[in-house]
Recover the amino acids of this structure.
């Protein structure tokens, strides 16, 4: 936000905008971009998307890009124009790519968590109905916590494991507790 405000404020003052309000344009666009980014992340938490949020995100990104690159683009030095535009493009483009990647990460992680929750719910339901044996239960546990196989080996299906896992909080907690404490 500060980077854009400095670039855009100078550009606007050079083009006759009153200095006391010149700084507002960049801040308003950046705030709109933040609103779109936060709104987009919240919607993705609930597996939703909205075209207006996407339109706001892209339009503010384009506005930021144009305003940050306008000053070097308007310069009379054509050798410096390419360098100036390239330098001033880096910030807005990086911001846009990071936010798009964040949305992708969030969608993928949400899908993974949903799949794991479904697997766990199905395993709990099947266990209540005695529909799965120790081998299947072991497979589900090691799918959720792959480190369990290394730590517990063939004892993954032991009834004590089901009691220790919630108490210790997973494989990291089991490792932190140590053998002596777990044996007690």
């Amino acid at each position: 936000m500060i980077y854009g405000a400095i670039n855009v404020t100078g550009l606007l003052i050079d083009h006759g905008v009153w200095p006391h309000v010149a700084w507002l344009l960049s801040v308003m666009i950046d705030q709109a971009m933040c609103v779109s980014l936060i709104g987009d992340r919240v919607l993705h938490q609930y597996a939703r998307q909205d075209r207006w949020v996407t339109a706001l995100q892209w339009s503010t990104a384009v506005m930021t890009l144009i305003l940050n690159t306008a000053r070097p683009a308007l310069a009379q030095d054509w050798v410096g124009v390419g360098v100036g535009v390239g330098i001033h493009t880096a910030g807005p483009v990086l911001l846009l790519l990071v936010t798009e990647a964040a949305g992708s990460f969030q969608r993928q992680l949400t899908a993974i968590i949903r799949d794991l929750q479904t697997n766990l719910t199905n395993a709990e339901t099947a266990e209540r109905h005695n529909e799965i044996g120790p081998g299947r239960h072991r497979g589900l546990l090691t799918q959720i916590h792959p480190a369990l196989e290394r730590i517990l080996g063939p004892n993954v299906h032991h009834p004590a494991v089901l009691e220790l896992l919630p108490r210790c909080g997973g494989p990291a907690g089991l490792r932190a507790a140590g053998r002596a404490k777990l044996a007690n």
